[in-house]
Design brief:
Strand content: under 5%
Helix content: over 70%
Mean pLDDT: 90
Structural class: mainly alpha
Distance between the termini: 72 Å
Number of helices: 28
Largest sheet: none
Order of helices and strands: HHHHHHHHHHHHHHHHHHHHHHHHHHHH
Low-confidence stretches: 3-18
Number of domains: 3
Number of strands: 0
């Protein structure tokens, strides 16, 4: 929830203090708004014992990140007075955003928008924490304008610290930026910017502490719940971004905290609105009641809406997939945008819904900004989308052939390694690029570096190092790496590839029993894994089990033919199947 409090000098006049500094109560505030990470951490770490980080990330981002857009949309379109006030924003902007995203997707010029979504999402996350800080101070009638400004600076600086000190997040953003055709940056600039930001954060923090001390001496202490909320949020953000080994798992950790806060505050807000505001729409009045079944329906609607975020991953038809991605992107952008003005703490309606007393609320009937001034706030967004799209279009025009694109990508990933030299995933990705280019020596060197940096704990690096060893005709080393990969990440959604590779390596060692075992495991996990059927058919053909060989080779030909991109594998399967016919 993006909160913002516009203040003037009159705001320093003490207002009547709310009965309670809590939003709901001591227990529920701690569970839902403040100490939520203490519940999330064990829950997700237990989930990691059964599911891969990639799968957890996919689930949280689909059903949580997309699903939690719905309550804000309910507020925008279910509050009649709010809709009348901002009718143009609620009707025109969604159409314009969808008209922007769909052409980018259908022309494959999508990377620029992905960069913007990451950066706006970062802003949105820190502004939600800032919003809770202002709510808690408003609960005790602390409206000092300097406090509000310092709260904002503290949130911005500490969230920035977590972002720029996260090798994984920096790598993600730079990778997407380079994919738009952006100019490569000098590593010295990144290091200098990081050091400068860290120093400014230390200065802001010191200034904040001095301000707190001065306020306490004047009897103007902040709500201690605000300080606790910010401290836990900053620490949790740092932990999720910097300390967690998987950046995807780290994003899921913080996203879940963000979602729980948002869903809970919207539920509480609407319960109070239904009790007090006659302008509440009929749907909101029906849904937001103090009832267990209604709460269940609320959560169910959110999960259902989140299904939209998961549906596009299940669709193989590109036009439909692009439309669904466009809808998710539009929903995300609307969530960021609407939250910038529908939850203002200075507004009477918002304050009433949050149980905040006081006479310094703004007039809900006036526009927050005039039309032209508000429209001008879209200029940075439009300029960024235009610039990044043009650079990607220009870049794609320069590097036309596949060989040129491969050389360009290899150069960029070599540069990324220099930008984040301690990030194992950067070396892993560079190693896979070298392997694809046929440079086995460079691939092995990069993958070995990834394994060293990860303390021998990167499952994907082990798998790819095994591929390099197999290509170097060293199947015993390949087996060791594949087995270690399975040991480290037995729940990966790509585990069938590791079993297939193990089958091929054991077959090279003439260990027919183990080769058969792993080929069969690959097919048990993914029955439509065509190359595993091809490998198993070839194994049975070599061992003289003709009927089994024919069965699996026919299946391989069928699957590879349906795929339409069988290529050399399809040709190999057909040749082996024909050779069986000649042996009869």
């Amino acid at each position: 929830m993006n909160q913002e409090t516009a203040q003037d000098d009159s705001a320093t006049t003490p207002a009547p203090v709310s009965q309670s500094p809590w939003i709901i109560s001591g227990t529920w505030d701690l569970v839902l708004f403040i100490a939520t990470p203490l519940l999330i951490l064990p829950l997700l770490w237990l989930s990691r014992q059964r599911y891969s980080p990639d799968l957890i990330y996919a689930f949280v981002t689909a059903f949580g990140a997309t699903g939690h857009h719905l309550p804000g949309l309910m507020r925008a379109y279910g509050d009649r007075s709010l809709f009348r006030r901002f009718r143009l924003r609620f009707t025109l902007v969604p159409a314009l955003l969808l008209a922007t995203t769909l052409p980018l997707l259908f022309t494959e010029l999508r990377q620029g928008m992905m960069v913007i979504l990451v950066l706006w999402g970062f802003w949105h996350g820190l502004m939600q924490v800032y919003g809770f800080a202002r709510i808690y101070d408003a609960k005790i009638a602390n409206h000092h304008p300097r406090t509000a400004r310092l709260d904002w600076l503290l949130c911005l600086s500490w969230f920035g610290v977590g972002l720029i000190n996260s090798d994984g997040r920096v790598y993600q953003m730079l990778e997407a930026f380079y994919q738009t055709g952006g100019a490569t940056l000098d590593p010295v600039w990144i290091d200098g910017f990081r050091n400068l930001w860290n120093a400014v954060t230390a200065l802001v923090t010191l200034t904040y502490i001095v301000h707190l001390s001065q306020g306490a001496s004047r009897g103007q202490s902040p709500n201690p719940l605000k300080l606790l909320t910010m401290a836990i949020s900053f620490g949790y953000w740092w932990y999720a971004m910097v300390e967690v080994d998987s950046i995807l798992f780290g994003i899921a950790l913080f996203e879940l905290f963000h979602d729980v806060q948002y869903l809970a505050i919207v539920w509480v807000f609407n319960l109070k609105r239904v009790d007090r505001d006659p302008n509440v729409g009929s749907f909101s009045r029906f849904l937001f009641r103090r009832s267990g079944p209604m709460l269940g329906l609320y959560v169910g609607l959110i999960v259902g809406y989140g299904f939209l975020g998961n549906l596009q991953a299940q669709i193989a038809f590109p036009p439909i997939q692009n439309i669904l991605i466009g809808l998710v992107w539009t929903s995300t952008l609307l969530h960021f945008y609407f939250d910038g003005f529908i939850w203002k703490v200075r507004e009477k309606g918002t304050r009433a819904g949050l149980g905040i007393s006081g006479d310094n609320a703004g007039d809900d009937s006036r526009p927050l900004t005039d039309g032209l001034r508000h429209a001008s706030k879209w200029i940075p967004f439009v300029a960024a989308v235009t610039a990044l799209t043009l650079t990607q279009w220009w870049d794609s025009g320069i590097y036309v052939s596949k060989e040129e694109r491969n050389r360009r990508d290899l150069t960029r990933y070599q540069h990324l390694v220099r930008m984040v030299p301690r990030y194992d995933h950067a070396h892993l990705t560079l190693g896979t690029r070298h392997y694809a280019a046929g440079n086995l020596a460079a691939a092995g060197k990069s993958l070995d570096r990834a394994l060293t940096l990860s303390g021998d704990g990167n499952a994907k690096a082990h798998y790819n190092r095994g591929l390099v060893a197999a290509a170097e005709k060293d199947p015993r080393s390949a087996v060791d790496h594949y087995l270690r990969s399975l040991e480290l990440d037995p729940l990966s959604d790509q585990v069938h590839h590791a079993h297939f590779a193990l089958g091929a390596a054991y077959q090279s060692l003439n260990d027919i029993t183990r080769a058969e075992k792993h080929y069969l495991q690959a097919l048990a996990i993914q029955p439509r894994f065509a190359v595993a059927s091809l490998g198993l058919g070839g194994l049975y053909r070599t061992s003289g089990e003709i009927d089994k060989a024919r069965l699996h080779l026919r299946n391989a030909v069928k699957l590879l033919g349906e795929d339409g991109q069988g290529g050399a594998h399809l040709e190999a399967a057909q040749q082996q199947l024909e050779s069986l016919g000649r042996q009869q």
